[in-house]
């Protein structure tokens, strides 16, 4: 199983979504409940189709959260392994999308906690502890000079300075297109809390942009 998952992962974020399987595309709100149901009963071909369908959306999601391609690839692989282990417990196939993002979020949170522990250990050894969110700042060039690659890099740098809770809801809503009920399910929180966190993330991001001498109009997709 792990080999099959690993083989399905090694692709760039620009690669296709694998919709040639005939099951539609995972980036659309609808979920093919027949495909999910078949995979849940042990149909390995259906499960492979699910992996092809969801690997790019999950990769892009986890790339926004982690900021690193290798980390995102590894977390997608772990997410698919967990999906394989737990799919038979899903119950309602129509709830598959937020359920899968919940699995991916758990992988991100485990990674984040491990990374934070390692960072604190390094800082303790160096005798110069700094807040984990104190990432490097830089003076941004004028908007006219920003190439697309620079925009993406600066935006990812800004997102990386958000708290994990702000980062999660922002990426789920803005880039993954989940509804607030889906976000609430994925995060295990009330819908109103999901909305509050999103607005909080916007405010925090605006302050970060200001600190970088940029505005929402400069970087926002």
Mind explaining what this structure looks like?
The protein is an all-alpha fold and 221 residues long. It is built from ten helices and no strands.
Task: List key phrases describing it.
221 residues; mainly alpha; 10 helices; 66% helix
Task: Please provide a brief summary of the model.
This protein is mainly α and about 220 residues long.
| Spans of at least 5 consecutive residues with low confidence | 6-28, 132-138
Average pLDDT taken over every residue: 79
The whole-angstrom Rg is 18 Å
Structural class by secondary-structure content:
mainly alpha
**Which percent range fits the helix content?**
55-70%
Number of helices: 10
Secondary-structure map with pairings?
Elements: H1 2-9, H2 33-40, H3 44-66, H4 69-86, H5 96-126, H6 148-160, H7 164-174, H8 180-187, H9 191-211, H10 216-219
